[in-house]
Amino acid sequence: MVGHVLVLNATYQRLNFISLQRAIVLLLKQKAEPIEVDVSAQLHSERLSFDSPVVIRLVNYVHVPYERFTLPLSRRTLINRDNHTCQFCGDTSGPLTIDHVLPRSRGGATSWENCVAACLHCNHRKGNRTPEEAHMRLHTVPRRPSDPFSILYDRARHNEVWEKYA
Ligand SMILES: [Zn+2]
């Protein structure tokens, strides 16, 4: 799930991005406190009115060993990694699909190293072949993102306030 509220640990370390809805639940349950808010975006419920959270901090420390932090591979996170760009033709305008470099039918894994964003045209053209067999060139070597945080958030809602906590 890709969200646009940055969650900090009690120690102010970055933990995750979550949806606004989840952030509000944490705030209402007093499991988190707002650190940065968007004063231009007021939220209203029947009884309450408050500024839209941009960064929240958990009240209680959560122990998350860095090695165990695994970035979920989803259509959204993969397309974020690939900059919303078809990795074969460079198209950024159309809808993107996930292409398995070594096709799944031939044992290709659904992994960061074997999946790339591809436009419908390129995905169809490549079909059940490897890029070499289809005479198509990959723009990048697919790999696991080195900075999961750059992938987790919804880029359309990028907020420079987040960079203070990088
Ligand atoms: Zn393409």
Architecture overview:
This protein has 166 residues and is α+β, with helices and mostly antiparallel strands. The chain has two domains: 5-67 and 150-165, no CATH class; 75-126, Orthogonal Bundle (DNA Binding (I), subunit A). Helix content is 16%, strand content 25%. It contains four helices and six strands. The chain has helices at residues 20-28, 75-81, 120-126, 149-152, and strands at residues 5-8, 14-18, 32-44, 49-58, 96-100, 115-119. Strands 2-1-4-3 form a four-stranded mixed sheet. The longest helix is centred in the N-terminal third of the chain and has 9 residues, at 20-28. The protein is elongated. 22% of the residues are buried. The mean pLDDT is 87. Zinc ion binds at residues 86, 88-89, 91, 118-119, 121-122.
Keywords:
single chain, alpha+beta, DNA Binding (I), subunit A, 2 domains, binds zinc ion
Topology:
Layout: E1 5-8, E2 14-18, H1 20-28, E3 32-44, E4 49-58, H2 75-81, E5 96-100, E6 115-119, H3 120-126, H4 149-152
The structure holds zinc ion.
List cofactors, ions and other ligands.
Answer: zinc ion
* Number of continuous helical runs: 4
| Count of beta strands | 6
Shape: elongated
Domain module count: 2
Strand order, main sheet: write it out.
Answer: 2-1-4-3
> pLDDT under 50 segments (min length 5)?
none
Largest sheet: 4 strands, mixed
Average residue-wise pLDDT: 87
Over all CA atoms, what is the radius of gyration?
19 Å
Structural class: alpha+beta
* Terminus-to-terminus distance: 20 Å
